[in-house]
Amino acid sequence: MSDKILQRMEFLRDELARHDRLYYVEARPEIGDADYDRLYRELEELERKHPEFDDPNSPTKRVGGEPLEGFSQVNHDPPMMSLDKSHSKTELLDFDLALKRLLPEVVPSYVVEPKVDGVAFSILYRNGRLVRAATRGSGEIGDDITANIRTIRSIPLTIPCEAAVVELRGEVFMTRQGFFDLVTRQEAEGSEPFMNPRNAAAGSLKQLDPRVTATRPLDAVLYATGVLEGISFATHAELVDVLGKWGVKTLEWRRFCADMPEVFKAIDELETLRHDFPFEIDGAVIKLADRKHYEALGATSRSPRWARAYKYAPERAETVVEAVTVQVGRTGVLTPVAELRPVLLAGSTIARATLHNADEIARKDIRIGDTVWLVKAGDVIPAVESVIVEKRRGTEVVFEMPQRCPACGGAVSRVTGEVALRCTNPGCPAQLVARLEHFASRNALDIERVGGVVAEALVKSGLVATPYDIFRLQGDALARLDLGEEGKQRLFGAKNGARLLKAAQRARTLPLHRWLFALGVPQIGATVAESVAMCHERFSELPTSQVLRDTVGLYDAMVEAQQSNPRGSANRKLDEAERNELQRRYDTACARIENLGEALVASRAATKVDGESRPARYSTLIKEEAVRALVAYFESEAGRETVRALEALGIDPVSQGLLSGGAGGPLEGMVVVITGTLAAPRHEIANRIKAAGGKVADAVTKATTFVVVGSDPGTAKTERAEKLGVPLITEEELELRLAAEPAVTEEAMVAVQGELF
Ligand code: IVH
After folding, report:
1. What's the confidence (pLDDT) of residue 376?
2. Which helix (H) or strand (E) segment is 697 a member of?
3. Residue 120: CB within 6 Å of ligand 1?
4. According to the model, what pLDDT value does residue 331 have?
5. What does the pLDDT read at residue 657?
6. pTM of the model
7. Which residue, of 145, 188, 573, 690, has the greatest Cβ tally within 10 A?
8. Active-site residue, from 4, 115, 690, 702
9. CATH of segment(s) 661-747
10. How far does the centroid of ligand 1 lie from the alpha carbon of residue 147, in Å?
């Protein structure tokens, strides 16, 4: 009996590993998600019932348990090298020449491969089992990232090779699509998005919690070897071949080149294909085809002699600056923008590029009419790199920042310590439009339909003079709002108007952090807003908040302690009286740091970092510049106006974390499971469920009250719910239960219950 069970478990493990390989490595799946899930669940169930047949390399064990405290270190022997780079073909000819000199008997032939722009890593299999993975680190010592690498499903946990040691080296990367999906998710969650795919891959590998890494769309290819014991490969082609047979992902695009002309052809061909790859490529790698010379050739201090990297120039395009316009942002900052003759650059048409500020324009000496090089900075944002001075005809015009705001004609001033010019008119319509757009944007109050044109029309028509006026809008006035330009009428319409009002109604009860972000206070991004909301119960507390004042006080005391430290270098040459006075000031500052620090720790707005040092060190929940900006805001006219406006509207946003724990809430006592993608970020929905008294669970059981089903739901959960008779509801139905005020809730509940139960 138990033999049979073990056999079945082994079959399932092999089968799942095979399907992982077909799906993630070879991109030719044989079964659909539902069938895969069924096999997976059967194995999970058997593993739960039979822990005696545990296998750490089971496909169910990719994502590890608890987060690590820190990474342990791995010694690389031989070291993980990097490659010498050539920027021109002549330099490649020198490489070929050097090899011919070092190997006089050999006519070298080469392999050209893409140079993947990712993060180098090493992976070690002992007797066919993955035992360790590491980053390059210094080359000699790297971080042990085994738990994170195991979450990458294209990397096999076992290989059909009995050799004692097979160490492979390769690159972890994120596809462009994976990166864009991740950034969209990060933006929706209000977290700082990654800059580019390489960054995203590196950041994901540095996670201490492999469960987080598992949610990142990582992939990997292997292209070289480290230590090998009990196996060898004669050529690079053989290595790639054997890896492929083992189910290890390798670079598909590869050219064998008998001589240098063929190498040049291959790197040119690859350059034209560069943007068709699903991942970023920043060059080509040229390797000696025959591995038997590798050892004899050896390495310089940092790179092996048998390979070379060839870097492609970043993509550039030539175009003309036809005009420079000036945009007014929500804080009044004037930003010059180059209006360009449209050009195609790395796959998209570019017609505008920010010039940042006047200093940047002066530094690059960009003039209107200039022919310029446009580059994609970090392969994402287009920027004017430089002027092609030879193409000047003398008719180009030097651009001057305007003395008055281009939108309202108001005065502009340069803020001390900043290069930026600002429009100082608080009633400037361009600022108001920008503020309104921010106020209504997705991560702020998510008021549908208040995009560019509508925001402009709302301000121009006078319907909106501050963002809060959105809450005073009337349906009929909105319906008649004219979005047309130059005399052509285009009405907003009753339907759009109703939509907008509904979204505004919903916005009234959004949690504190969303409101804080929406206000557009300088320095208060989505993440800081969350921190602020975590240590306050409601908006009306903020103007007189003790936490904010204590945090500012703490930072002031830190400055004072630093200045008055008798052992500070500036204070060494003092006489005794001065020294005593300093000591007194220093002691007072240290005591103040301790007092404020402990008070903040008690309200969970700080943690003690180093209690041994004097003064003790604290890390605050809200960072220094942000807390200063917030305090300044509530003292400013704009801040007071906001407080007055919200009071008048009867809006006092409540913090999600502290929302009463949900007692008496509409979901009290309910257990909710979520599956699929919801319109709002999942953690936010989960928090709102908790705030309404509900519990969020991962698995569907008999205790589950209902399952909220988003788009692309996991079949595992819905099928189980159907089997157990647990009702499925839509996100809209959930909103109905959550959003409404108590009186409305009852109605809504009746409606929902009528439909569901
Ligand atoms: S072979 C010395 N092949 O580029 C180790 N490297 O600066 C042998 N890279 O360190 C490297 N694609 O991280 C090789 N097809 C490829 C590669 C590649 C990307 C990385 C690797 C290397 C760096 C060179």
Report:
1. 79
2. strand 695-697
3. yes
4. 83
5. 59
6. 0.53
7. 145
8. 115
9. 3.40.50.10190
10. 23
Per-residue pLDDT tens over the stretch 407-425: 999 999 987 777 788 998 8
Average pLDDT of the chain, as a whole number: 88
pLDDT value of position 664: 61
Q: Is 115 a catalytic residue?
A: yes
Give 73-311's CATH code, choosing from 3.30.70.330, 2.40.110.10, 3.30.470.30, 3.40.50.1700.
3.30.470.30
Specify the residue with its C-alpha closest to ligand 1, atom 4: 115
Give the C-alpha distances (Å, rounded to integers) separating 460 from 242, 410, 430: 68, 17, 10
Using alpha carbons, select from 284, 261, 260 the residue that is nearest to residue 271.
284
Question: Which token pair is 751?
Answer: 């409606």
Task: Give the whole-angstrom CA distance, residue 153 versus residue 18.
Answer: 11
d(CA 97, CA 106) in angstroms, rounded, equals: 12
Structural domain boundaries in the chain: 2-63, 73-311, 317-422, 426-507, 526-649, 661-747
Here the tokens at position 415 are 């803020």
Question: Ligand 1 centroid to 82 CA: how many Å?
Answer: 6
Q: Check residue 752 and give its pLDDT.
A: 29
239 lines ligand 1 (CB under 6 A): no
Number of neighbouring beta carbons within 10 Å of residue 638: 15
Q: Which atom of ligand 1 is nearest to the CA of 115?
A: 12
- Residue 148 clears pLDDT 80, i.e. is over it: yes
Instruction: Identify the DSSP state of 642.
Output: H
Ligand 1 centroid–CA 396 distance in Å is 45
Minimum-distance ligand 1 atom for the alpha carbon of 113: 15
Q: Tell me how far the alpha carbon of residue 380 lies from the centroid of ligand 1, in angstroms.
A: 23
pLDDT, tens digit, 9 for 90 and up, residues 559-616 = 999 888 888 777 677 788 888 889 999 999 999 999 999 999 888 788 887 778 888 8
